[in-house]
């Protein structure tokens, strides 16, 4: 029996990409990543805890302020009312890490790369989705926190952010650093590919490094190199950006707000660049 190779070849046309097809748009990829975020229970739990904790702390600060008698400084009261943002940073930063590491733990990263083979596009879409989500959560948290301070303190007006540009700027700066910290957690998740590892490193950056440097400052009796490290430590940069009068724990002179923001951007950029390099070169 013979096989007609000519007819067999003719019956199977080679695969060709239709140039008229639009392909997957960036907006479509970002909507897909938002859907993935909303599908995770962890997203809702961490977001609700951040909102609830931020509102509770703002209310507690307002009650304490009223009980012990404040000095009538609206800016100081509003700034104290945003203390919950520090906890929101670790919660939403953890969400940023989990948003990526969960793809590896479930094996969904292979499906994601099949649908979006351009890895850089996938990473940017994930980052944008996280930015939108964390910005929304932070906005709700700060609105409820401001309302709690207004209701329980009796010292801050509801329209204070629109009457005092310093309060509005402080709120905007606080919200921005929460979003940036979320992106730093995302970069750590991309680079380390481990939820536990990324969250531990994020916790070290946010809470442990400052304590170690403060101890070193006392032990070395204010050595210049420790002062330099204190100024560029993440939380000190955050304080310099949000509140120029805060300083680095009262031990060294604070940087200018623009210098604080630049330092924060560098802290956020480093793990994201390392994560992008790792993600674009390593196997899924």
UniProtKB/TrEMBL annotation:
GO terms for molecular function: ABC-type transporter activity. GO terms for cellular component: plasma membrane. The chain crosses the membrane at residues 44-63, 83-102, 123-148, 168-192, 199-219, 258-279. Keywords: Membrane, Transmembrane, Transmembrane helix. The keyword Cell membrane does not apply. This is ABC transporter permease subunit. It comes from Nesterenkonia sedimenti.
